[in-house]
């Protein structure tokens, strides 16, 4: 559709009610359309190490190409530019990260060349703007999913779930899932957010933030012990709002599947945590057998199964899927497409029902 959310809607809080002000008929089209939004920008191609690196622009380019070339999927989605409200975006980035760290990313990016935050994580001249735009894309996806009751996708990079309050790490700059959650709670007024992270690496940055907020529950499945060497099952947080499912190397769906159904799904929405207002999925695809950065052996169809079971368990589509890791281009393209396809089927089923 090529119209940024900020060009379409402006919002304000009045009498504790969220109002939508339409600046064009496109707003009605976006929020009434049966198409599902994929929030994406060509800016996400600009964060580049300038050398071979697993976290590269081709990741999102390959996924976008796969979605666009699938006739059934492409007719059911709209690619939307993130909004350009940088002040609000920075406000919520600051809810999750120290100002000194945000300034550090901006300063390093301002030099224009490629520099390192750590041994894995780089910054180039476009990184600051790209990472801010990525955070905004997740925020836009949250707003869309909550207001329409239909799934939304943030096809973004760099990833975010390893970024801590004080530093980037593990290819991550800003912690998008945490930022989007803070936005949902403090801007949209939601009271309960669930986060499910199926990336092969434990989302240490997201978890650290979630532990401070009793309005949030987070569950993560990940290879363990493995980078970033956090995510033990015994770590539940002071609010008992964290559940880690640690998988040994070479685990596959026969290992994860029962734990996903019997532990992770009831944790994000169950008897002691009634239906959350929204679910955010940190959708990394590096647990695929074809991904060389880890040793878990999932197949693309397993991500389709998880997506289907999430939606059926919740019974609604207020779900955001935001890209985290995944470095085999064929693998992530297929798995992401299967995730989207399951969401399309779910929405169609609800319409028929």
From TrEMBL:
List residues of the Histone deacetylase domain: 53-341
The molecular function terms in GO held by this entry are: histone deacetylase activity
Q: Which domain of life is it from?
A: Eukaryota
A Gene Ontology BP annotation from the UniProt entry: epigenetic regulation of gene expression
Pfam families on file: Hist_deacetyl
Q: Which InterPro entries match?
A: HDACs, His_deacetylse_dom, His_deacetylse_dom_sf, Ureohydrolase_dom_sf
The record, for PANTHER family, names: HISTONE DEACETYLASE HDAC1, HISTONE DEACETYLASE HDAC1-RELATED
What is this protein identified as?
A: Histone deacetylase domain-containing protein
Origin organism is Rhodosorus marinus
